[in-house]
Design brief:
By secondary structure, the chain is mainly alpha-helical. 68% of the residues lie in helices and 0% in strands. The longest helix has 35 residues.
Length: 228
Amino acid sequence: MFSRLQSFFTLHERARIYPFIGFILLLACEPLIAAGLASLGLGSQPTYLVRTLAAVALLIHYRRDYVELSLTPSLSQAVIAILSGLLVFVLWVLPYPEWMGGQAQNNPEAMPMRDAMDMFWLVCRWSGSALLVPLIEELFWRSYFMRRLEHSEFMSVSPAHVGTYAVVVSSVLFAIEHQLWLAGLLAGLVYAWLYRRFQVLWIPILAHMVTNAVLGAWVVFGGHWQYW
């Protein structure tokens, strides 16, 4: 089956699909991974680290294919990315009703912070969310999927020439990936606009990183664990 996937997807597609799909599949298998680690006496905390290391390994394996990452933003573009990331954070923490994915539970389970090991796992979770997830998701949703909807030879598509259909469909599917689907939709539209407007993938990546980093601080220091 793996060989069939290899022949079905081009190298450019595999480089952007596999890290994302691998991360999502390991997330879906988290209960099984946690149970396996617990049976070895390691506890369930390393499950996030397992996902992170697997994704990092794939990103490193395909690193030479990420030509879009060679373009870096200017200072003014970086400022716009940061402000956009903060805007998405505000949109994310609005009090959404349950039918929009809002949480009804008032006392979600917090990650333990009793000792140095607990803090290590917390840092792993925070850094993975702020640094790794934005890179994986923007390579998949914006660089690949949004442009792939525009043309099968997506590497030849300039982000500036991506149409409304590709922006909306990719943002809707990005929203479905998240429990807060309306916030996810708005976030997807913001990140897509940044890529289409500036044609530099690092700009939506930076905005996404800011969103997730500030959200992590909101979770840990504000006790809003329902967002994790």
